[in-house]
Structures are given as C-alpha cells and as structure tokens.
Write a structure and sequence with these properties.
Largest sheet: 4 strands, antiparallel
Radius of gyration: 33 Å
Oligomer: single chain
Strand content: 5-15%
Structural class: alpha+beta
Helix content: 40-55%
Length: 183
C-alpha cells in the first residue's frame, strides 16, 4: 500500500515550489536580457548621449540587482546609460515595485545634468508649491487651523466662554481668618 505520508507530500510541495521559483527566475532573466538588448539600441542613449532617469520615493537608497550590483539613488534619482541597469530597473517597475518609477516627463536627461541638480530642482519646486499653498490660506493640518487664534490662556478662556468665578466677600473673609496649617 502506497499511502502518502506528511513527509512525502511536503517533499512534493517543496519540489513544486522550487521548480516554480526556478521558472520565474528564468523568465525574469530572459526578460531582462531582451530589454537590455532593446535599451542598447535606443537612439536617445546611443546617438544623442542622453541618460535614462529613474526615480525612487526614498532618498539615498540602494537597489541590488539580480547579479549583485548596487544601484544607488542619491536624492531619490538614478541616472544611467547602462543597458543592463535600465533593463533591470524597468523589469522591477513592470512587476510593480512600490518605490522605483519613471517620471514620464523626464524619461531622458542630458549627460550634462547631474542627479543632485535634478533633485535640487524638484526640492525647490516643492518648496514653491508649499509656499503658494500657504499664501492662499491652505493649511495642511486641520488642527492647526482650529488653534490659529489662540495666543494665551486668556484667549482660551475667552474663546471657550468661561468667565472668572465671582467669590462672595463673606466667604473670602472667613477663609482669611482660618488658622494656617503647619506641618
């Protein structure tokens, strides 16, 4: 009798997962090789001395390729004309990488532009946008808008409608005549 045991079923599952992972790795390797060949033939990279621009939502991060090469994103930007790097990053983006992306407005950049310059330009653009939003009365934090008129505790009392308590003069005289506690 050939009754399956837990060990034999687990071994079959592990073998199936291993072959599935090998298939996925082979498909990824083939897709990256094909994309690298296409990237090496792009006229913008070949003839016009331009670079591909990749962005990342994190600043100063490293991405490790399947071959073990570290691709850095200083200031959230990576510029390259290496077809293998382009193919690897495009493959990751096509598989839904949550942080690496291509800005459709800036797919190619000149070889004279540096990543730090582009990052600085993006930072300044964001600062100007934030300043314009503040000038138009927009406050990103709704709690700060509600607390905007509070300058002191007197303002808090005034805004809350609480008035100072009135003390009866007879009670005040009795309290003053009580002996002081000694301890």
């Amino acid at each position: 009798m050939n009754d399956p045991t837990i060990d034999s079923v687990a071994a079959e599952i592990m073998a199936d997962q291993r072959t599935q992972a090998q298939k996925e790795a082979a498909l990824a390797k083939a897709a990256i090789a094909i994309n690298a060949a296409k990237a090496s033939q792009e006229p913008e990279l070949k003839d016009q001395h331009k670079f591909r621009l990749f962005k990342c939502t994190f600043f100063d991060i490293q991405f490790v390729t399947r071959k073990g090469k570290c691709i850095t994103f200083p200031n959230g930007i990576h510029i390259t004309n290496n077809p293998e790097d382009i193919a690897e990053l495009e493959y990751e983006i096509s598989k839904g990488h949550p942080h690496i992306f291509i800005d459709p407005k800036m797919k190619y950049v000149d070889d004279t532009v540096e990543g730090k310059t582009l990052a600085e330009r993006d930072r300044i653009r964001e600062e100007v946008r934030q300043e314009l939003m503040r000038d138009m009365g927009f406050t990103p934090n709704p709690a700060s808008a509600q607390l905007g008129g509070i300058a002191s505790s007197a303002t808090v009392a005034e805004l809350s409608g609480i008035t100072k308590a009135k003390v009866d003069p007879k009670i005040l005289a009795i309290l003053k005549n009580l002996p002081k506690a000694t301890g």
